[in-house]
Design goal:
Blueprint: H1 2-11, H2 25-33, H3 37-40, H4 45-65, E1 92-93, E2 98-103, E3 110-114, E4 127-129, E5 132-137, E6 142-150, E7 153-155, E8 163-165, E9 171-177, H5 179-187
Antiparallel strand pairs: 1-2, 2-5, 3-6, 4-5, 6-7, 6-9, 8-9
């Protein structure tokens, strides 16, 4: 078992969690009953390990969000006020559509999902153009939450400074499509 863990650390350096989920009979019992370990047994190593993993995930998300400036709107929260005011905003809203864009030079697949597509993987694929991934979506005016999935890893939009904590401990990017702004772009 230690050799497998060492191989994972070596081959996936920087792309794995440090927390190790140890074998636990209580984990197997909880799974066979269809019950989360947190409801089945909080007094076992399986619960402790998954709790440690959850903390590690939340710490990584907080670290990623730490250096972003966030426009406060609704429940959106400022992660940092030190960012440059010239920081680019994304996605780009035109008179008829929204273009989602993310730079992921070495990614094999990028998707954009949000409440505008019911967080559905189908049709969420983005198109790669010289390492920049793009997707144009027709969106009516409204407020939307979204995230990118880069090679299977969820992340908020690095170009959008408006984020909001989601129920899973991560941050969703926030997009407000303003009808007045769209009408001005159509007229101009």
């Amino acid at each position: 078992m230690k050799a497998v863990a060492d191989d994972i650390r070596h081959h996936l350096y920087g792309r794995h969690f440090d927390t190790v989920i140890r074998y636990s009979v209580k984990l197997a019992e909880a799974a066979s009953h269809g019950v989360p370990i947190a409801h089945y047994c909080k007094e076992c190593v399986g619960f402790e390990d998954y709790q440690a993993l959850a903390i590690e995930v939340l710490q990584q998300e907080a670290t990623r969000a730490h250096d972003r400036r966030v426009a406060v709107e609704g429940n959106a929260i400022p992660a940092s006020t030190a960012a440059d005011d010239t920081w680019p905003w994304a996605p780009a809203v035109t008179s008829k559509e929204v273009m989602f864009t993310i730079e992921a030079l070495h990614a094999a697949q990028v998707q954009v999902m949000g409440d505008f597509n019911d967080w559905n993987l189908e049709g969420s694929e983005m198109e790669r153009v010289d390492g920049i991934w793009k997707k144009v979506v027709n969106l009516p005016p409204g407020r939307y939450r979204y995230r990118y999935i880069v090679d299977g890893r969820w992340q908020s939009d690095p170009l959008n400074v408006a984020v909001e904590l989601n129920p899973y401990g991560g941050y969703d990017s926030i997009l407000v499509v303003d009808k007045k702004l769209m009408d001005e772009k159509l007229a101009g």
